[in-house]
Amino acid sequence: MNLPALFNDLESLYHQYNCRERVHPDPLIFLYRYPDVRDREIAGLLAASLAYGRVAQIFKSLSGVLQQMGPSPLNFILQSTPQSLMEVYGRFSHRFATGNHLAALIWAIRNIISRYGSLYACFLLGMTPEADTVLPALIRFVSELTGGHPSEMGHLIPLPERGSACKRLNLFLRWMVRKDDVDPGGWTSVSASKLIIPLDVHIHRMGLRLGLTQRKQADMRTALEITGAFRDICPDDPVRYDFTLCRMGMNGNSHDL
After folding, report:
1. Model confidence over 32-71: pLDDT tens digits?
2. pLDDT band at residue 248, thresholds of 50, 70 and 90?
3. What proportions of the chain, in percent to the nearest 5, are helix, strand and coil?
4. 67 CB contacts (<8 Å, ≥6 apart)?
5. Angle formed by the axes of helices 220-233 and 3-17, to 10°?
6. pTM
7. What local confidence, expressed as pLDDT, does residue 2 receive?
8. Which of 15, 56, 153, 165 could make a disulfide contact with 199, Cβ separation 3.0–4.6 Å?
9. What does the mean pLDDT of the chain come to?
10. Interval 203-223 mean pLDDT
11. What angle do CA 43, 47, 51 make, to 5 degrees?
């Protein structure tokens, strides 16, 4: 693999694809509504958790969830009870997710905010200088979020300690940590250098084609392997090209690289 040549190609494509005009219909677009990072992190976790299935259905589901919360997801959650959440979201359905799953996730978010002040503060408690990636912090964060009862949230929150690539959680972290024309950022004390690539079918396929991995399983080991290859190219920001590569893959333009 010719790293300098690949870096130049990726940078060129980054400047072509990584712009706000190309975001729609990515669920990331919902985060731009919230200038307050405490609202944005809630919207971001919900958006990432629902980011599976058909794009139109993701947009419809997420739009309905956030509309019920009004201008401030934080204020809505702090005023909620388990009963009120079921009254609002009891009939919710998004592929495998039910109203019970969604209400359980929102209530778990509320519990974390009540204990730590924000999702950000909770996540930071798992960050250590010696960790190469956010994986240890992510494992701790998910443990806090699920409270030992992950089944209550169904498929909305994966378990990183079981080897899942955790594509949607790593997508959430990309949104909250990086800041550029696409990613809004806000979690300023988490280094972008420790992020893990949100491994989806487009990134996995491109990683195989470029020789960034030989692994056929789209799991956490593969995500870490591809992330390591991108770290060789861009040490301070290994997920810098994630949005670009996904957009290329979705548009059938992967041959451009």
Report:
1. 999 999 999 999 999 999 999 999 999 999 999 999 999 9
2. confident
3. 60, 0, 35
4. none
5. 100
6. 0.96
7. 77
8. 165
9. 95
10. 95
11. 175
Amino acid at 221: R
C-beta pairs of 47-55 under 8 Å, 24+ apart in sequence = 47/172, 48/168, 48/169, 48/171, 48/172, 48/175, 49/105, 49/156, 49/157, 49/168, 49/172, 50/94, 50/97, 50/156, 51/27, 51/168, 51/171, 52/95, 52/155, 52/168, 53/94, 53/95, 55/25
Residue for token pair 């009254």: 87
Residue whose entry in the numeric block shows the structure tokens 């770290």: 231
Q: Looking at 111-115, 173-177, 200-204, which range is the least confident one?
A: 200-204
Residue extents of the structural domains in the chain: 3-256
Name the DSSP class of 120: H
